[in-house]
Amino acid sequence: MIGGGGREHALIRKLKENSSVKTVYCAPGNGGISRDAVCVNIPATDVEGVVAFAKEKKVDLVFVAPDDPLMLGMVDALEKEGIRAFGPRKAAAEIEGSKVFSKNLMKKYGIPTARYEVFDDPKKALEYVKEQDNYPVVIKADGLALGKGVIIAEDFDGAEKAIHSIMEEKIFGASGNRVVIEEFLQGPEVSVLAFTDGKCIRPMVSSMDHKRVFDGDKGPNTGGMGTISPNPYYTDELAKECMEKIFLPTIDALNKEGRTFKGCLYFGLMITKDGPKVIEYNARFGDPETQVVLPRLKTDLLTIVSAVIDERLEEVELEFSPEAAACVVMASGGYPQSYEKGKKIEGLNADGQADGAEIFHAGTKYENGQFYTAGGRVLGVTALGNTLDEALEKAYAAVKKISFEGAHYRNDIGKRKY
Ligand code: AMP
Ligand code: GLY
């Protein structure tokens, strides 16, 4: 397993439900993951290091979970050495790596998304904003930006600042060489993760992320402060419409472009008055969406993963529990801005777990039988229930038993009303 967050912890725990999984190595992993896997000190972005380690240990399968190594071509590099790998090749991962690429793909193949224009010249970008004179306006850096590359400007001044900081100050580096300027959409947001082998696509159950740091969707964006599954706004009818208008056309489009996608494709959707539209694609499992989707998965994950790699996903049906799931993220004081690490975590047992919930470790360290904070997002406290309310109640009950200095979390996960 490549990566070291809550998503990877959830993937490892699910994969281990298959008794043929003997040893899991995780590069680099974290404190909680070390209770379920052997952590190895190789950064997730070290393509050569991972390939060398996989050869040395003769691993049967490498699961590349985060975006950066996918975009660096880690799957291509592993395949070249004859090592089985789960995840899209670099050319397909571009659907997340470049917003310009993904927007142009959607336009070319008629996949519903926000209207937009692309600019590599800040002056022209600004002229366009002035011409449109329609606020809020959404300004996106082309490349990866740690989930912070989207700025929603409320007026011309805000747009000017955004364009200046992305394109001229280069706050996201080369990711800001080009920007997408697009229309502001409104409506419930839905995350749908889907397995695909390039021929068949099998969506998983839906989920909803909570990106803002504070209750009531206030404060800056984070990597995600909590999730629920299913997403109450995603009806069966919408699922059918998305399959026809978005999921299948996306797989087709990538095939036609010679960029067949194999792995988990993440659809970030907005349910607008004019129907569902794509806000973004990710070339991987979402974090913390994975933490609520996988606990509901009843089909053996390794069987699905193998079927994707061998391009026989058609043979595998996905089965999910009808239960609801909720994940509440406990974060370090100050996150998503600067925060301190190394705070002792109370309330976890020796396995890093707690009664009444499953704990996915996002940023922890394990030392002498004790867990310490080691990242912005620290723990994803997850519970299943017969109803969403029951799942939330259980998750929050567990959260209240866990503590560390400065800990903060949202109190309103799963309570959003549109
Ligand atoms: P992204 O990094 O593409 O996921 O964007 C981050 C967040 O910005 C999304 O989850 C949306 O809440 C918001 N966003 C992105 N594009 C739009 C848009 N065209 N209209 C409204 N909100 C948007
Ligand atoms: N939760 C959003 C993401 O994984 O990008």
Note the overall shape: globular
Report the average pLDDT across residues. 97
What strand order characterises the main sheet? 12-15-18-22-19
Terminal CA distance reads: 37 Å
Structural class by helix and strand composition? alpha+beta
Q: State which percent range the strand residues make up.
A: 15-25%
Number of helices: 12
CATH topology of the largest domain: D-amino Acid Aminotransferase, Chain A, domain 1
The overall strand count is: 22
The CATH class name of the largest domain reads Alpha Beta
Proportion in helices: 25-40%
CATH architecture assignment name of the largest domain: 2-Layer Sandwich
Number of separate domains: 4
**Low-confidence parts:** none
User: Which small-molecule species are bound to the chains here?
Assistant: adenosine monophosphate, glycine
How would you characterize the largest beta sheet? 5 strands, antiparallel
Oligomeric description of these chains: single chain
Classified in CATH, the superfamily of the largest domain is ATP-grasp fold, B domain
Rg, Cα atoms, Å? 21 Å
